[in-house]
């Protein structure tokens, strides 16, 4: 197998020298294990946190270890009665071409039911994050306005489309004109605003004439601050991600925003609630799989994937994900499907 291992903890944007490519033999299969060939590797913003030693909700990757990540794989050998050679599975084998894993740590996919890559995107962890965070915390009501940034990504695009299913108005924020066009034409948002536009704040105000009732927080930074000024009384803010800060090496310059933010929480009676999607798996995952499959089938939810070929391109693709160079769910096609 060829692996990408963490060689040093990145400071700021991850550099090539923070990683090493290693080609090594895999151990013999033990009972209950399978040999997996990676077809798709998912790249997700949370991976930046795993590269860092800072305390988080999950343990960091140790220096010298293979970078973690969700994968879709083919079973090449099996010593488990539950998996047969040729099965396609969802696994968590990380940045490598082959891996040995416990069959219990894989989920068998049905390639007839949906393209296998969707198990890492709209029908996988990011789609579930949107579903659970929006419905359990955001609770959009018909006629309300839902705003979300990183809106063409797998989480944001699902948030806006589920909001529409629930009868709300969806306003998407994205970082390029072509992404903003896709929000309206492809994903059916009611309005789109480019956060790199010089008149971003004015455009945000124009596209949210009745204020914002649910702000699904994916990014924080100046975008989050601008949307906070549009929040209505009793607005809900599911805090899902802070991608604007992930490569930051120090606190932002300028006045301390926290007093004003706490003031808004108090005077507007806001509900600001962070979450990690796994919290909602026991209560919402079955409903998610049923609802999302239905919405994809009836056309109410569309998805977009940004597939890059070759494990060699993983790191550059990951840097692009944090900088907004991806357009849709970021995937590396490690092997042929
Ligand atoms: P995306 O594919 O949407 O990629 C991240 C996007 O963030 C970029 O494409 C870019 O889009 C946008 N972005 C980057 N920097 C900034 C910035 N400074 N200001 C505004 N936008 C920025 O990622 P995902 O859909 O996979 O994830 C979205 C968020 O959800 C992330 O914060 C992630 O960490 C979080 N998440 C949280 C989970 C949880 O359990 N809490 C689970 C899964 C994801 P653009 O060009 O439009 O600016």
From TrEMBL:
<dbReference type="InterPro" id="IPR036291">
    <property type="entry name" value="NAD(P)-bd_dom_sf"/>
</dbReference>
<dbReference type="InterPro" id="IPR045010">
    <property type="entry name" value="MDR_fam"/>
</dbReference>
<dbReference type="InterPro" id="IPR011032">
    <property type="entry name" value="GroES-like_sf"/>
</dbReference>
<feature type="domain" description="Enoyl reductase (ER)">
    <location>
        <begin position="12"/>
        <end position="332"/>
    </location>
</feature>
<dbReference type="InterPro" id="IPR013149">
    <property type="entry name" value="ADH-like_C"/>
</dbReference>
<dbReference type="GO" id="GO:0016628">
    <property type="term" value="F:oxidoreductase activity, acting on the CH-CH group of donors, NAD or NADP as acceptor"/>
</dbReference>
<protein>
    <submittedName>
        <fullName>NADP-dependent oxidoreductase</fullName>
    </submittedName>
</protein>
<dbReference type="Pfam" id="PF00107">
    <property type="entry name" value="ADH_zinc_N"/>
</dbReference>
<dbReference type="InterPro" id="IPR041694">
    <property type="entry name" value="ADH_N_2"/>
</dbReference>
<dbReference type="InterPro" id="IPR020843">
    <property type="entry name" value="ER"/>
</dbReference>
<dbReference type="Pfam" id="PF16884">
    <property type="entry name" value="ADH_N_2"/>
</dbReference>
<keyword id="KW-0560">Oxidoreductase</keyword>
